[in-house]
Amino acid sequence: MSRNPSQKANLALVALGANLPSSAGSPPESLRFALKKLSQLPQVVPVAFSRFWFTPAFPAGSGPEYVNAAASFRCTLPPEQLLRELHEIEAELGRRRDGGRWQSRGLDLDLLAHGDLVLPDAAVQDHWRRLPPQDQALRAPPHLILPHPRMQDRGFVLAPLAEIAPNWVHPRLGLSVAQMLAALPPQALAGMRPASA
């Protein structure tokens, strides 16, 4: 598909994670597969990929440790279409989206941000971002929320993301990725370690 020069290319931020084998292989192989597929999408140009990080499962004791990463892309796809593409890559590796939240999985791709878009609007984004932790496990938004409402709370998202987009600023919080990472309590990063080079 050719690029339309009149379309603005936003910086799309994507979090990747896996803690079970998939049809692509081990969790690191699943992430490599997803990064390759993402890089081949029309209207998507890779910018940077983080290292892989090993992260204890969340919530604690819920499964094997995860392999997490982050990727950034210049993208002219609308965010809803990019999210559909992410879900198709997950499905290609056997992901079914009818299970509970925070379960072990062979591949998880989250659209964290699409430029400085706030979707569907500021009030809804603020509501889901402020949702108490006990409700987060029980409720999922019925539509795309951007920025991802949990990104500022998660070390396994922010540590990889800080490697590739430390200066991206959350449009509702006014904080950069580096600042959000620095504000996390120590327990949010407990047990995390980057893969050796």
TrEMBL record:
Annotated ranges, domain 7,8-dihydro-6-hydroxymethylpterin-pyrophosphokinase: 14-166
EC numbers: 2.7.6.3
Superkingdom of the organism of origin: Bacteria
UniProt KW keywords: ATP-binding, Folate biosynthesis, Kinase, Nucleotide-binding, Transferase
InterPro entries xrefs: Hppk, Hppk_sf
PANTHER family the record matches: 2-AMINO-4-HYDROXY-6-HYDROXYMETHYLDIHYDROPTERIDINE PYROPHOSPHOKINASE
Xref: NCBIfam families: folK
Name recorded for this polypeptide: 2-amino-4-hydroxy-6-hydroxymethyldihydropteridine pyrophosphokinase
Provenance organism: Paracoccus pantotrophus
